[in-house]
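Consider the following assembly input.
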Amino acid sequence: MSDRLSGTMDLARVGWDVPTLASLDRPELALGKVELLQVMYEIRCGEMTDLMPYALQPSIPASATWLGMRCDESPWGPFRMALTRITGRSGIRPRGLVTSAYVDNPDAARELRDGWGYPITHADIRFRAAYEGIAVTVSRDGDPVLDLRLIDPEVVRITPYVSANIHVVDLPEGRRLLQVDPDIEFTEVQRGRPELRVFAPEAAAGARIEPVHPIHAVYGVGTISLPRLRWYFDPDRSLAEGTTDLAKAARP
Amino acid sequence: MKFGVFFELSVPRPFTREAERKSIFDSIEQAVLAEELGFDQCWNVEHHFLEEYSHSSAPEMFLTAVAMKTSKIRLGHGIAVCVPEFSHPVRLAERAAMLDILSNGRVEFGTGRSSTWLELGGMGADPDATKKSWSEFVDSIPKMWTQDRFSFSGASFSMPERNVLPKPVQDPHPPLWVAVTAPGTELDAGERGLGMLNLSFSAPLTVQERKIADYRHRIQNCEPAGLFVNDQVNVINWMHVHTDRDIGIERGLRLGDTFSYIAAQVLELKEAYPSTTYPRPGLLSGLRADATVRKESAAAPTERKKAPEGLLIGDPSDAIEAIKRWESVGADRIMCLLNASDALTHEEVCDSMRLFAAEVMPHFQDDSDSGPVMEVNMRNDLKVGAA
């Protein structure tokens, strides 16, 4: 019988500011006029099991995704966001463990952090969609943190795969993994060559990640619904033993 | 109904040279036992880089070893990846022909195009081009086997006139198959007169029934890729039986659960690359559906344990019932997946094979000869030896 692969990361030592959530009872929220840029790379990372807690399993080859988003219609006004996510699995599905999240709108930053557990840092973010390519750049205090690009876009009839997020959050019962799986509807999709021109160590929050092999860049226009929260996990137990189903927990 | 065995050559962690060697040699022993027990085919996959899931990158070598120790069992060379970054089609034709000679005409040739980023990305293949290359390879390889001079100019490869050698023993050539996982591939199979290699656990039986019916309908008016039509449906299925039903079900579920766990480690193409030719997850996602079997079969303590629909696990009567269901939806053959990453011991696997052969297979005696049932349908433009 095989020794099963599981993460070994100690979540008490994560390199980012972990949000504390007072409540997980958030209504679904629709965001309109959204543009999304996703760039994916295979990564060199030493032992891939070091990059995720026990409740998550590695995905082979080790990979990470960088997401840039521009949203023009939200309750908090327009905002831009950029995420770094390490690919892992909860059970049989790929997930993105979020190591950093940058937002340029203070109201959006507060709500996304308090409501859905995004580990938000305020930053200056530019999102530029042009015929020759799409670029998302993030800087803090004038220093570049992220620069992700799609070069030579072509329109394609594909629904790209965007995995659900896993956020590390503090709940009354302790540190937990919160699954946030936005419902994304694209009306237009473009595909092109990926480039990650800047990836500052702070965006990896201490994880030793080296992007080494580009996989894809995809850009989509559409809408996103931030979901009602459905599940969270005990990071130190298997999914079968450590999953809390919020819908079931709410029922009398 | 005919029965075969199917080997992925999965290897448990931690990887050692000895664990790898043992997995391969246990499988060869099981293949030899399969022939002794009356199973009529032994299939071995082609995969690359799939840690734990499948260390089977050279099926023609494994099957040659099996061929040297057996005399009757047919050898399923599959699923040969028809993508030029993996193998030139000439090399696929040459290797299969040599195996056909060494085995005295026992090769069945399975084709596919891979569905994982781990493999396609590792080989530097263009995922958008794999359907085209598969189609060109499948049309070309039978001609390489049967023509004295072959030349081709296509999108995935081109070559000047050459005599591809050696030629297979089977006349005109080994039967052709394609792995059917993505929706619509059953129509590609029917269109080209290829046998359908189907996964038992990729969809409910009602969906499988419709797929098989669509395949049967399409193949009636096919343009065969080879020199004859192979109109068989071959189903890959978990198999573990035991005289104690609870033990059979527990081990069978362990088998499926382990396989789902190792399959889930692999990054699928659909999950990594937005390609027009992989709109849906492929083979591994089909296997992953089995991760749910444990929940579906979980019964209250007072209930009788139940094997998931269509899987050959439990006691012999469970397997007989499942096979009858497959017969009723149109399957001709069932290939038994016997182990996954040493979830079961070699002895447990062999005991299950013996019980299956003794108490299940006799219920499905096939009076036809041991070769594949094929309708020969020669095309004027594909005469053997035509330039």
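The domain at 2-367 of chain B is CATH 3.20.20.30 (TIM Barrel). Ask yourself how this observation constrains the way the partners meet.
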